[in-house]
Amino acid sequence: MNATYLGMPAFPRAAAVSTRDERLRGNLRHATHTIRAKRASAVAELADWPALRAAGAALKDRTLRHLDHYLEQLEAAVTAAGGRVHWAVDADDANRIVTELVRATGETEVVKVKSMATQEIGLNAALAEAGISAYETDLAELIVQLAEDLPSHLLVPAIHRNRGEIRDIFRREMSRWGRAAPEGLTDRPADLAEAARLHLREKFLRAKVGVSGANFMVAETGTLVVVESEGNGRMCLTLPETLISVVGIEKTVPTWQDLEVFLQLLPRSSTAERMNPYTSTWTGTTDEDGPRDFHLVLLDNGRTDTLADTVGRQALRCIRCSACLNVCPVYERAGGHAYGSAYPGPIGAILSPQLRSTASELDASLPFASSLCGACYEVCPVAIDIPEVLVHLRERVVEGGPATVRGEKVVLRPAKGHAAERAAMRAAGWAFQRPGLLRAGQRLAGRTRRLHPRRLPGPGRAWTDTRDLPAVPQESFRDWWQRTRGQGAAP
After folding, report:
1. Residue 324 predicted with pLDDT over 60
2. What distance in Å separates the CA atoms of residue 308 and residue 157, rounded to the nearest whole number?
3. How confident is the model at residue 5 (pLDDT cuts 50, 70, 90)?
């Protein structure tokens, strides 16, 4: 069985359930606080971190502006090196291509490197429908798969599980998927890692087909790059006879010199390391080493639509470090599953609604899954202004308007349930355009502040159910200025 995100509820309903799970919140609090503290220490070691961050953002923006050119260069380089390139418009297209490639080998099993792109398209479920078993080899992904669960974090997919839960999952489920867990398995990290190593070894040695993603693709040479911490990626990339890599088109970087910038930004922001333990690169095929056949599936699946949005396109800079998740107060309390996507947390709240559009109730709710505190922007290694994009997408949800969906210009209708918000915002805009009316309203509010309720009635009740209505000051700033600084100094 392969769990999917299909049919998951809107964020408010999912979060209302997950925030009541005390064990989940405890697991998340411990893990995210630990990771964020280590990251801060690793970043502080570099005096030029702000300049490095700015360089990463500039490189990504330049690449995205000329993405068509670099993708053609990448295709030519991969082909010249002995690989084959396949273009996938959407998830169904990508799943069909990968399924056909595996069937052509005659195999019914594949081993997988951790890949966000394959989670995004639901590849494991598609392969299962075709009678092909996909085995996750990343430790955290293995835990999720054995539990028939879903990833809840970009970097640590099983962050919502503690050691005791993982031990129980291994004891209960490993035998159904292959080698059983050792007798008397404890919850010591070393014992759990050893159980996983023994379980996976036979799959590495038996598999003839590997499936991977990539952190980066170097256009000038056709080289793909995977960074990881366990060595499972190296095994999947070198032992199988056929390697199939499914990669989003935005993962392209022009040159090896550009790659150097991101290999400094990514490890410090994700695992708080100066460099990753394993950085694997591969270029096409060779006669002496590695897979004999290499296929690169370039995935669009909404990325071109996102690129057409001059504000939202900065989400495509993302290098999947997960730093924004580890500082987000909403993610820490709600958990990753509440986002209903392979991309949880702040980046998921802006990326998923653009890749999938805001037409569904779930995707329309994601831009509102934030307090707009700005912590995500402060830690992002490529300076994605997530709060800016959140506000931009909220406007699209509430007001509707032009967007690009599957390459076509469309006009999105306002989402249901936002009529009161639209009316309030339009009334506020009308008032702000009339200074005399605004001044009179402020004075009236100040003089009647004792009569104001603590909770709003009607549609505003949901807002004040979880927060206090701000107290109205006795006088406005304008009146205070005039009273204390004199009539002539009024702003």
Report:
1. yes
2. 30
3. confident
Rounded Cα–Cα distance for residues 278 and 265 (Å): 15
Whether 376 and 324 have beta carbons less than 8 Å apart is answered as: yes
According to DSSP H, which parts of 45-187 are helical?
Answer: 49-65, 67-80, 91-105, 116-121, 123-129, 139-146, 163-177
In this structure, the number of other CB atoms found within 10 A of the CB of residue 366 comes to 31
Over residues 68-113, the pLDDT tens digits come to 999 999 999 999 999 999 999 999 999 999 999 999 999 999 999 9
Beta bridge partners of 136: 112
Say which residues have a Cβ less than 8 Å from residue 166's Cβ, sequence separation at least 6. Answer: 143, 158, 187, 192
* Amino acid found at 234: R
Q: Are 253 and 259 in contact (CB under 8 A)?
A: yes
Q: How many CB atoms lie within 10 A of CB 29?
A: 12
What is the C-alpha separation between 446 and 123, in angstroms, rounded?
59
Helix %, strand %, coil % for the chain, to 5? 55, 10, 35
- Half-sphere exposure in the Cβ direction for 168 (13 Å, CA): 6
DSSP state of 182: P
* Distance between CA atoms of residues 108 and 131, nearest Å: 7
Between CA 483 and CA 90 the distance in angstroms is 63
- Beta strand ranges found along 399-467 (DSSP E): 401-405, 408-412
> Cα dist. 343→3, 130, 215, 257 in Å?
15, 26, 15, 28
Element (H, E) at 464: helix 461-464
The residues that bridge with 280 in the sheet, in sequence order, are 226
Angle at Cα 239 formed by Cα 237 and Cα 242, nearest 5°? 70
Q: Note the Cα 78 to chain centre separation in Å.
A: 27
107-118 CB burial, b ≥16 within 10 A, e <16: beebbbbbbbbb
Q: Are strands 84-88 and 293-299 parallel, antiparallel or unpaired?
A: parallel
Over residues 268-305, the pLDDT tens digits come to 999 999 998 999 999 999 888 889 999 999 999 999 99
Q: Cβ distance 284 to 290 under 8 Å?
A: no
pLDDT of residue 487: 60
The token pair at 90 is: 């959407």
Q: Is 470 exposed, middle or buried (0-12, 13-18, 19+ CB in 10 A)?
A: exposed
Burial-class residue 262 by CB neighbours within 10 Å (0-12, 13-18, 19+).
Answer: buried
